[in-house]
Amino acid sequence: MKRQTSAEEQNRPHVVILGGGFGGLQAARALRKAPVRITLIDSRNFHLFQPLLYQVATGALSPANIAAPLRAILKRQANVEVILARAEAIDPEAKTLRLHDGTELGYDYLIVAVGVRPHYFGNDDWETYAPSLKTIEDATRIRRRVLLAFEEAERESDPERVREWLTFVVVGGGPTGVELAGAIGEVANHTLRGNFRRIDPTQARVLLIESADRVLPSYPPDLSARAAESLAKLGVTVRLNTRVSDIAPDCVTLQSDDQQEVVRAKTILWMTGVRAVPFADALAAATRAPQDQLGRLIVQPDLTLPDYPDIFVIGDVAHYAHQTGKPLPGVAQVAIQQARYVARLIQARLRGKVSAPKPFRYVDLGYMATIGRAAAVVNLRGWHVHGLLGWLIWLFVHLMALVEFQNRLLVLIQWAWNYFTRNRAARLITAEPELQPERERQVV
Fold this sequence. Notes:
Layout: H1 6-10, E1 14-18, H2 22-30, E2 37-42, E3 46-48, H3 53-57, E4 67-69, H4 70-73, E5 80-84, E6 87-91, E7 96-99, E8 104-106, E9 109-112, E10 116-118, H5 126-129, H6 136-154, H7 159-165, E11 167-171, H8 175-191, E12 205-209, H9 221-233, E13 236-239, E14 243-248, E15 251-256, E16 259-264, E17 267-270, E18 274-276, H10 278-287, E19 297-298, E20 304-305, E21 308-313, E22 318-319, H11 332-350, E23 367-370, E24 376-380, E25 383-386, H12 387-401, H13 405-421, H14 438-443
Parallel strand pairs: 1-2, 1-9, 2-5, 9-21, 11-12, 11-17, 12-13, 19-22
Antiparallel strand pairs: 3-4, 6-7, 7-8, 10-18, 14-15, 15-16, 20-21, 23-24, 24-25
Helix pairs in contact: 2-11, 6-7
C-alpha cells in the first residue's frame, strides 16, 4: 500500500493523548485504522504494568519485566508519534497544549489519561517516611527499604532495635496493600529463611492497617475473609478499624476508637489514598470543569468535559458516576474500556455521525488479588474462586495482560522459578550513595 504523503497526513484530524498507561496506550491502539494522526505524550518513555509493581518491590521481578518502551510497542503503527514530555497548561478555546519546555501543540481531539498520584490527606511530610507504590522508582525504593531492614537487623546487638528493623507496617488493606503485605510475609518466612546468621527472618512482624472492618472492603465479604486467612498463614497481622494519625522516621501512631498506639517500625509503606495529578487542576481551571474531593474531573456520560466535546477524560483521573451513582474503580479494565469507547466515538464523529452517543457503560469482568504462593481471591462476574485455582487464574490473566510477548515469557519463567525454589532473584539493594544510611556510606 502506498504511504500517505506528509501533506496528506498533516491534514488529518489530530488526536493528542496524554498518558501512556492502560487508557492512553489502548486509545492509541484502538485508533490504529482511523484516518487521524496521533501524538502520544508521556513523561516516561515506557508503558508500566502497575498491577505487578509490588512484585518488583519485593524482589520477585525486575523492573524490565513489567515495563516496555512505548516506541517499541507502537513502532508498527504509522499514524502515531510518541513525544517524551509533560503537559502543563491548556488553552481549550485555541485547542492548544503547553508542554513543560514551553512548546505549544495543537489538537482536534484531546484524550486525557494522566492518572493519579499518592495522597497523604494533607500530611505530605509523611511521604518521606512512608513511600507509596506508583512508579518503578517507588518499587525499587521499597525493595531497598525492605531488604535493607533485614541487613541492618543482622548487625544490631540491641534486641529492641532488631525488633524495630524487623517490623513492617503496610497502611491500606486494598488490593495493593494486601498483595504487598503478603509478599513481605513470604519474603520473611520463606525466601530469606537460613540466609542470616544472627537473626531469624521468620520473626519479622508484618502489620497491615485498614480503616474499614475488613481487608479488601470493595470485595465480597467471603473473599475478604479468605484473603485474611491467607495473610494470617504468612504471618501478617491485620489491624481493622484502625487509622494512622501520625508517621515519624521510626514509628507510626495508630488510632482505633479512643485508643492510641505507637508502633516502633523502621519500614512503613503507604498503600492507601490517591489524588489526581496537577494537570487535572490546570484542565479544570481552564475549562471550569467540576472536580471531586480527590481532584478527579467529573465527566459527562460520553466521557467529555461539560461544554468541551473535543476533550475526553478517561481512567483513574476521571470521575464517572453515571452508571451506578458511585465513581468507577481505578482499575485497568475501566481505563481500557473507556479508551475503546472514546476511540469508537471519535471515529463515528469523523464519519459524520454527530447524534447524541450512547453513554459509556462499564462491563465488570471481575477483579482479583493474590496473597502469596498458590493463594489468591478472584471474583469473575459473581463467580468466587480462592486458593490454588484462584491463583492460577490470577497468573493467567496478569500474564496475558502484559503488553509485550517478551515480557510474558520472562515473567512466566521467573514465576516458575520462584514457585519451585521460593527464591526471588531480583533481591538487589540499589541506591545512590547520598540516599544510603550513614552506616552504609561509611562502608562504601
